[in-house]
Amino acid sequence: MRIIAAAGLLASLVVSGALASQSARADILPVPPFKGNDTGGIIAYSTATQVDARQVAVDHCARYGKVAKFLAVQGYDGGYISFSCRWVPYGAADQPIRTLY
User: Signal sequence: where (predicted)?
Assistant: First the structure.
């Protein structure tokens, strides 16, 4: 019984040692060109140079009955354009206009 427990402990130490020796790399995961939810989102700057980023954000927020407000732009490769989805202000039209192409 002790031999089995010792072998199990040795195997777990070998596996954890092998995992600990691996370096963590965040650059191997692909970054999506657009990501968002009902509170806002981000658009990759490289994607924004190919498509109309304003229209992408407006269409995304209109799905939730909200309007887009742009927050920040990181104007370089690897940067993002961030926006938030806000409720339609009082006195405005009832629903945001959603374009269908």
Answer: 1-20
Residue 81 burial by Cβ neighbours in a 10 Å radius (0-12, 13-18, 19+): buried
Is residue 61 packed enough to be buried (19+ CB in 10 Å), middle (13-18) or exposed (0-12)? buried
User: For the chain, which residues make up each domain, given as ranges?
Assistant: 31-86
Radius of gyration of the chain (CA): 24
| Alpha-carbon gap, residue 46 to 51, rounded angstroms | 9
Which amino acid, 7?
A
Cβ(33)–Cβ(71) below 8 Å:
no
Q: Contact, 43 vs 19, CB < 8 A?
A: no
- 33 vs 7 pLDDT, higher one: 33
Per-residue pLDDT tens for 26-78?
Answer: 555 566 789 999 999 999 998 888 999 999 999 999 999 899 999 999 988 88
